[in-house]
Amino acid sequence: DSFLFTIGDGQMFSSVQNDKSMFGKLIKINYSTKKFDLIAKGMRDTQGAFFYEKSRVLVMTEHGPQGGDEINTLRELEFNDDVNYGWPVASYGKVKYNVIEELKYENHAENGFKEPAYWYKKNSIAPSNIINADGFFQNSEGDFFVSAMGNTPAPGRRSLHHIKFSDDFSKAEVIRIIPVNERIRDILYVKKINRVVMILENTPLIAFLKPL
Predict the structure, then answer these.
(1) CB crowding 107-124: b at 16 or more within 10 Å, else e
(2) Structure confidence by residue, pLDDT tens digits, 95-121
(3) pLDDT digit string (tens) for 37-59?
(4) Is residue 79 within 8 Å of residue 27, measured between CB atoms?
(5) Nearest partner of 40 among 27, 59, 21, judged by Cα
(6) Given the DSSP bridges, would you call strands 36-41 and 83-84 parallel, antiparallel or unpaired?
(7) In this structure, are residues 103 and 89 in contact, taking their beta carbons and an 8 Å threshold?
(8) Residue 209 backbone phi and psi in degrees, to 5
(9) N or C: which end of the chain has fewer CB within 10 A?
(10) CA–CA dist 5, 165 (Å, integer)
């Protein structure tokens, strides 16, 4: 009876940790009553999200400032736990062009925030969407893909990232990176034809990934 909705920080950095502000939040909106509940905060720019029903967990991609892009997870059991992802107080990315007085830490958990399941340490990949593709690989479940953009080519950008999570979804691992050499704006998995469909920006094109 509800849907989940993410709101970026709008560069209103001092408002993200304020529960009375809508910036940098994840909310749940009821279709019928139009009422909403605050589910999580401390989010910078969540561009992709997928609710994996088999494990009742939400997986999300998050743009870092310069570097520090994240893959975040939130189990349905945590929806009432006042989850805080840390931005702008904690980030593994670097801030070069803005003055953010609140930014103090890299480590999240040591300072009371939820750690990302994975973060990109060396450079930004500019993640767009994240999807589940159970059935894409024969006899395999729990396979996810993250699509990446990037204004300029760099390792990990303009690629698909094949992701696997731990059983409790607290950790993620990049299994492989599949270069596409185009900014990938969006992806979806079409189970009927067993293809990952990609919307490519530079050409532009609709492209398909199929298993070997």
Answers:
(1) ebeeeebbbbbbbbeebb
(2) 888 889 999 999 999 999 999 999 998
(3) 999 999 999 999 999 999 999 99
(4) no
(5) 27
(6) parallel
(7) yes
(8) -110, 130
(9) C
(10) 23
